[in-house]
Amino acid sequence: SPEQLFWLTLIYATPGSGKSVLMNRLNVEFAAFSAGAALPFLAVIDVGVSSSGFIELVRNALPPERRHEAYYVRLLNTPDYAVNFLDLGLGRRMPLERERSFIENFLTTLLNVSNPEVALLVPRMISRVFQLKSDLQFSSSPSVYQPDVDPELDRIIHDFGIEVPDKARWWSIVDALVQRRLFFAAQRAQRYAMPVLEDFARVLAEP
After folding, report:
1. What is the pLDDT of residues 103-148, one digit of tens each?
2. Residue 203 · residue 129 · CB < 8 Å
């Protein structure tokens, strides 16, 4: 139907019926028979480890210089695997509509907001917390760069001769890295420029 925005396939069966085998087969066909030399974008979120075999199959089929394109990570509930739900695409100070929608839904679920009047505050809180951390807004307080927070970034900054004045903002580091086309390092630096959950407490405390 032209009204459909996406396809959704639901597979259900009793344990041991071959659901994982079927899904892995579909994923192999999707990866192997897509047009073009580049791999299609495919993400698998798996409660178990059944998808690891498919990922290893794709990885081993790639030449050594491209094996980083297929990667299996088993997530753990530790700080090393933590993700900031307020993180945005590289260089963006304010969220896109789809990013804002995700953040709003996540925050509403996290706070268990049931009162419609309270729910109206959530979009305003999101706008304000990003304004607060932006370097392009008035009455903001963007995060300030601090050495030794990320030794790898410190090394890159030194190796590429990036000047860091006193009280330099993390956003200026991000922009300098982007100008040098060091996109991975820029994305890494942007982690420290983004708001975090604790910043909402400051927003709520504002008059």
Report:
1. 999 999 998 888 888 888 999 999 999 999 999 988 789 999 999 9
2. yes
| Residue 122 Cα distances to 35, 173, 198, angstroms | 42, 30, 15
Give the sign of the dihedral formed by CA 87, CA 90, CA 94, CA 98.
Answer: negative
Do 94 and 130 form a contact (C-beta atoms < 8 A)? yes
Q: Rounded to a whole number, what is the distance in angstroms from the first to the last CA of the chain?
A: 50
CA 117 to chain centre: 30
pLDDT digits (tens, 9 = 90+) for 53-71: 999 999 999 999 999 999 9
Using one digit for the tens of pLDDT, what is the confidence trace for 153-206? 999 999 999 999 999 999 999 999 999 999 999 999 999 999 999 999 999 998
User: Smallest Cα–Cα separation from 133: which of 205, 193, 185?
Assistant: 193
pLDDT at position 106 is 94
Q: How far is CA 36 from CA 39, 40, 68, 156, 180, in A?
A: 8, 9, 18, 34, 29
106 is written with which tokens?
């996540």
The full set of domain ranges for the chain reads 1-82, 97-205
| Strand intervals (E) in 9-165 | none
